[in-house]
Amino acid sequence: MAFKTSRTEAGITVVRVEGQLVVGNRQELKELVQDAVGHGDRKFLLDFTPTAYIDSSGLGALVSISKRVREAGGDLRLAGLNEDLRSLFELTKLDTLFPIAGTAAEALAGF
């Protein structure tokens, strides 16, 4: 599991979540985003294109990250959820909390 971070010319921090977002790595993602917020970043895209699984602690981490970004006046968007993950977000009603785009390119165009 790895997180790959990049920044667009428009100042959007893109975090690519590879593999799984689970109890063992959720804190790493939270710290990555919190550090970026601390350095002044306000626009975030979490790209789940290469992600196969998110457990309940991973979902909790996403809610926590969303709250932190919003409190700082920022914007957090998700992209690339596969069919199973999309269903998970719909079942948990988290699709109402996060703007979710089909692809990273679509999400970036929406900022």
Plain-language structure description:
The protein is of the alpha/beta class. It has one domain: STAS domain (Transcription Regulator spoIIAA). The protein contains 4 helices and 6 strands; from the N terminus they run E-E-H-E-E-H-E-H-E-H. Strands 1, 2, 3, 4, 5 and 6 form a 6-stranded mixed β-sheet that branches. Helix 1 runs parallel beside helix 2. It starts with a strand and ends with a helix. The model has no long low-confidence stretch (mean pLDDT 96).
Rg, please? 13 Å
Helix content: 25-40%
State the separation between the terminal residues, measured CA to CA.
27 Å
How many β-strand runs?
6
Total domains, how many? 1
Write the layout of secondary structure elements.
Blueprint: E1 2-7, E2 12-21, H1 26-38, E3 43-47, E4 51-54, H2 56-71, E5 75-79, H3 83-91, E6 100-101, H4 104-109
Parallel strand pairs: 2-3, 2-4, 3-5, 5-6
Antiparallel strand pairs: 1-2
